[in-house]
Amino acid sequence: MKEFLIGNANCYEFQATDQLVDSVLANIENSNVEYKKISLNQNNSPTMGYIKNEYGYTSFYHQELYSFLDECLKEVAEKNFNNFSLKIVDLWTTKSKFGQSSQSHFHTMSIFSGLLYLSDCDRSETEFTMNTRLYDNWKFFIHENFIKNKEQTYRVKPKKGKIIIWPSDIKHKITPHSTKDDRYTIAFNTFLEGISLKSSARINISLTDGCQPEDAIPFRKKT
Amino acid sequence: MNKIPLVNSHVYEFFIDPNIVDEAFKYFLSLPITTKGAGRPQTGTKSLHGITSENDYIPFYHEKLFIEIQKCVDLVCDLHFKNTKMAICDSWLTKTEFGKQSAIHTHNCSIFSGLVYFSDSTTPTKFILDDPFLQKNAHLFESIIINQNYTQSVEPKLGKIIIWDSSLKHKISVHKEKDVRYTLAFNTWLTGSISNRLTGQLHSNVVDVKQKNQ
């Protein structure tokens, strides 16, 4: 695990093997993945893929990948929490065609989010943005045009097998995809699971896994 | 000059049958309770953290009382969340003797917290909202800003339940009565199908105090 900073937030990088990535790609091609628009307000946005079944849309699931991500998240949780683990609650594929880009967004219902890049891509990066403290403190006093560098940006270049994990409230977007080959990634969200025995803060949370088919199906069935 | 407070946080107040509260209180006091000091040692309030067991403290639970509390929690939940339930995940007694008070504190691992008052008292629960003007400008004008935190006091009354955002600072004021002041405090967390939205699905299963007592 490598650590890097976006603003003052600790983020993490891992590397999956080519063999695992190839297996995931093959699985995507052979599964009944249905692609939907990420943003309804943007015509030229990438699409996200879920498995379509009789209960609706279920998270994409690949056992080997899931086990690998679980190991990565154990390390991230150990760095950040006492007695709580991070569990994947949602996982989907993204597909960007030539010219497509996403609007800046963040992930709700999630503590840490992550991305696995399924191919190298020189131009279409993931761009994270955080407002500078100066801008945050003074945006109501000074016209924003007069503040240079109001946003700190951090770009991640897609590389096959690279996994990045960041706090879910950091805004990010996909910059325009400018090559002919489709750009694929796996994105996922996590939430805290565990037991706190601290007096007056005792809690025992378990999560229904959004990815394991046997759990996801009854979950979807309820709605 | 009129001063109009702009406050967007609420303490929700309910009243339930005092007989149920009284019955629960007598039951709680009959239990083998574990006592621990709450907060900083100098504050003096005792938190009674449940029934002693080998591995953990079991939260306080009384079926009739908690059915009533859950109804109040459900109403608050419906005001703030769509199609989501909150489970009562922890509960404990507080005991405040003459001359004691609690430190200012918030509740961790909780969305909304609540209190059930077991008797009438003039010793309030005091909520404190920090002055946002001071927070924004302290680094510039600290020496000339007069701190004007907003406070709101809630007076204990038998059968009264209050519920508030767990991140709100609060304290028990100095207790100036001879009778010991008891309350039941509780925390909550979201449970069930919290979101079924694509890229935001979350389904949590929180062990509530009833399950912890089984």
Describe the structure.
The complex is a heterodimer of chains A (223) and B (214). With 223 residues, chain A is an alpha+beta fold. Chain A has a single domain (2-216), classed as q2cbj1_9rhob like domain (Jelly Rolls, Sandwich). Chain A contains 4 helices and 13 strands. In chain A, strands 1, 2, 3, 4, 5, 6, 7, 10, 12 and 13 form a 10-stranded antiparallel β-sheet that branches. Chain A has a 3-stranded antiparallel β-sheet with strand order 9-8-11. In chain A, a hairpin with a 2-residue loop joins strand 1 (2-6) and strand 2. Chain A is globular. With 214 residues, chain B is an alpha+beta fold. In chain B, strand 2 and strand 3 (46-52) form a beta hairpin. Chain B is globular. Chain B starts with 10 loop residues before the first strand and ends with a helix. The chains are: A alpha+beta (223), B alpha+beta (214). Chains A and B meet through strand 6, strand 12 and strand 13 of A and strand 5, strand 11 and strand 12 of B.
Q: What structural category characterises the helix and strand content of chain A?
A: alpha+beta
Strand content of chain A: 35-45%
CATH topology of chain A: Jelly Rolls
Number of helices of chain B: 4
Tell me the domain tally of chain B: 1
- Measured distance between first and last alpha carbons of chain B: 58 Å
Structural class by SSE content of chain B: alpha+beta
Order of helices and strands of chain A: EEHEEEHEEEHEEEEEH
N→C terminal distance of chain A: 38 Å
CATH class of chain B: Mainly Beta
Low-confidence runs of at least 5 consecutive residues of chain B: none
Shape of chain A: globular
Average residue pLDDT of chain B:
88
**How many strands of chain B?**
12
The CATH superfamily of chain A is: q2cbj1_9rhob like domain
The largest β sheet of chain A comes out as: 10 strands, antiparallel
Q: Got a strand count of chain A?
A: 13
Number of domains of chain A: 1
- What's the helix-strand series of chain B? EHEEEHEEEHEEEEEH
Total helical elements of chain A: 4
